[in-house]
Protein: NAD(P)/FAD-dependent oxidoreductase
Organism: Actinomadura rubrisoli
Amino acid sequence: MTHSVVIIGSGFGGIGMAIRLRRAGIHDVVILEKAAGLGGTWRDNTYPGAACDIPSHLYSFSFERKTDWSRRFPPQPEILAYLRHCARKHGVLEKVRFGAEVTEARFDEDAALWRISTTGGELEARVLVSACGQLNRPAIPPIEGRDRFAGTSFHSARWDHGADLRGRRVAVIGTGASAIQIVPEIAERAAELRLFQRTAPYVIGKPDRPYRGWEKSVLRAVPGLYELNRARIYALYESRALGFVKYPQVMRLLEKRFRDTLRAGIADPRLREAVIPRYPMGCKRILISSDYYPALTRPNVDLITDPIERVTPSGVKTAGREYGADVIVYATGFRTTAFLSPMKIVGRGGRELNEAWRDGAQAHLGITVSGFPNLFLLYGPYTNLGHNSIIYMLESQFRYVLGCVEAIRRHGLDWIDVRADVQDAFTRDMRRRLRSTVWETGCQSWYMTADGKVVSNWPGFTFAYRRATRRPDPRHFNVRTRAACAPGVPPPGSGAS
């Protein structure tokens, strides 16, 4: 069966895009989800302490406000419950096909259709939207001997809740955003916890607390106050872009917060020295926690900075010694720069997306890829942030994609395909602007490809991105006009758009 729009993924991007399409009168939408439940990264990451590092009133859809968040920074279960609420309230839950992992999507140029193969069957779409995100494919480093470990091991995004850590020797490999939340939680249960650090992160205090009942009541009762509070938080976080992309000296203000957090959390000068990063602040993701540094000072916690040589059946071996372990937790992040992998995406002329991206992912405005008509990416290349809420960026992309879909329908088009020269000009501009950002000051981060190109981040203000994606520019696209309406697609002027 041919559908107007098929969306891959049911996280914030997929659910939000489906809601926007439905509100625009486009109801023939299918969401393909490989798992048994919706939620994307907030479904997958259920490790102890999992929470967002963006304030709750900003980490939510502007069109579905929530005044009763429990805390300033929302925990994982509450975020997942919010997404489920949005899907149910706006009538898109029934649009989700669970257990349908996409293996291939191939564009049929003659029929102007995306022919999609999934583990749950085949289907066709006039428009294909990828809402897979950047944080859904766990990365486990190829450490020698990893498969021979005799104990329990798992990635933080695939937490084994059947593993009882009480009284056990636990090794945590990695010191990124997941690790700084996990370590304080499990340090209270484990007999021994050894944290293996390759690169120290910058950690600043987390100004978190529960919302009081009267605060929730006032936000709910006073017209406009919720929106005003959201705007205040947005402006505060948006101002940090100055330090990331324009004036690195602004980072000194955050460096002071880092020093204050470090001094308050760790008294031992040797341990304090071991957790001081050796790269400019902001080059890697800045992390927030008020209990990570204190957790490192617990008598049952050891920070190991020697490089790992291999994993043995009984633990983790460094150049200095072997550390026994009953459980190994890989808090080693995600494969972030492959974007649509491991799906096979084939566009015009039989060209595969992996081939088109062999020198790094490229997409005009992070949304459209030349040679792949009627394909739209959410949270694609050059749209990640270091300073503000990704939900704001996604809502900008929803509007742009919706504008493209409505143009296809209104003007009776088979397809639209962004011009190669437009995409190339955008990519050159991104590369030029990124060279002056803090992300390209010498460190290796998950923002980069293996050869050192930053392909994930937007080098500017989020309001500038919103302006750039305000509406599709018809001059940016090659188009093919449809001679007659295809099955399943309402004719132009039918009122569906």
Q: What stands out?
A: Residues 125 and 393 are 25 Å apart (CA to CA). The longest strand covers residues 121-130.
